[in-house]
Design brief:
Blueprint lengths: L6 H14 L10 H4 L8 H21 L5 H19 L1 H8 L2 H21 L3 H4 L6 H6 L5 H14 L3 H9 L1 H23 L10 H24 L6 H6 L7 H43 L4 H9 L3 H8 L11
Helix pairs in contact: 1-3, 1-11, 3-4, 4-6, 5-6, 6-11, 6-14, 9-11, 9-12, 10-11, 12-14, 14-15, 14-16, 15-16
């Protein structure tokens, strides 16, 4: 129990140390000809990941059937994706070759991996670390009014040319960059996926607005890459031609990579929660028309208990197409 309670501390170590602890050598010279050999196998990358996976496994075993298999697979898949992004040739090519590949790495670190990790978390999984006061204080960062601006600020900050170039050249800065992308994305999706309850007011309608703002901010960022008309990062002016594209083409490709990830995650979430909003609205209306208290109905719908409330009240929520 005590071991599983330090999963949060291990995760922090994982974010910092595993991100970029082992620098790859050799620079960009000849990389286009031997990119597949640019793997890094550092204990600073592998060990923290293994610790996090092991601690999660301990907690999962204790919870047993209360933690579904699909959640476990999501969590482990998220860790694996993160590890592949920082150990595989994606890292070397992204730094010393193509901006588009670096953006692909960031799409994994700051998009797919965090979503999978959050999907693998539940209240019972997190319960041991929630006993720590510092964790309780930091939980404010997952508030939707903080998490979204924090994610947006991180995205913009690390793509300011002078800061981006510094992050590429400095291993510690690059580790912090990757940690911030991963961490702020975890915080971003926390109130949406709700492994722990979000604020009472943050129901499906509010989540749709949240996702809409997220979608729009990503589109603005992508359009800046597509239509800036100038090469933002000087290092790729030298390295991109070695891969058969101009730096400006590479920059546009990076925007396309980000847009593909943004489409897959954000638009999918908008569709899912759009259908959920319609279903909840119909259920809410039926329950209110049946004479149930509006506040009780609102609470039940907000927390996914509309079916249970309807069953107790003898109300049928399921409709027959063309009849109800």
């Amino acid at each position: 129990m005590r071991q599983s309670s330090v999963i949060g501390v291990a995760l922090v170590v994982f974010l910092g140390a595993a991100s970029h602890a082992a620098a790859h050598g050799g620079g960009s010279e000849g990389l286009a000809d031997h990119w597949w050999d640019a793997w890094t196998f550092s204990p600073f990358q592998i060990v923290p990941t293994a610790i996090v996976a092991a601690l999660y496994a301990v907690r999962a075993r204790k919870l047993g059937k209360r933690l579904p298999i699909w959640r476990r697979m999501c969590f482990y898949s998220g860790l694996l994706l993160f590890l592949l992004a920082i150990m595989s040739p994606i890292d070397a090519v992204g730094e010393d070759g193509l901006f588009a590949v670096h953006m692909f790495q960031h799409a994994i670190i700051g998009g797919f991996a965090p979503v999978l990790v959050v999907l693998g978390l539940t209240g019972p999984v997190l319960q041991p670390i929630l006993k720590f006061h510092w964790v309780q204080r930091l939980s404010i960062l997952a508030h939707p009014l903080i998490a979204l601006p924090l994610w947006m600020a991180t995205l913009v900050f690390w793509h300011v040319p002078v800061i981006y170039e510094f992050g590429i050249e400095n291993d510690i800065a690059h580790a912090i960059e990757h940690g911030m992308f991963f961490g702020t994305s975890v915080l971003l999706w926390f109130p949406i996926l709700e492994p722990l309850p979000a604020p009472e007011w943050f129901g499906t309608g509010a989540k749709l607005i949240y996702l809409g703002i997220l979608w729009f901010s990503g589109v603005v960022f992508v359009n800046f890459l597509w239509f800036s008309g100038t090469v933002l990062y000087d290092r790729y002016a030298e390295t991109a031609p070695e891969w058969g594209v101009s730096a400006l083409q590479d920059q546009g490709n990076a925007g396309t990579v980000f847009m593909a990830e943004h489409l897959l995650l954000t638009l999918s979430a908008l569709v899912i929660y759009g259908f959920k909003f319609a279903s909840e609205s119909a259920a809410r209306q039926k329950l209110i028309e049946a004479g149930l208290d509006r506040e009780a109905v609102a609470r039940a719908v907000r927390h996914g208990r509309a079916d249970a409330l309807a069953k107790r009240a003898g109300v049928t929520l399921k409709t027959r197409p063309g009849i109800d």
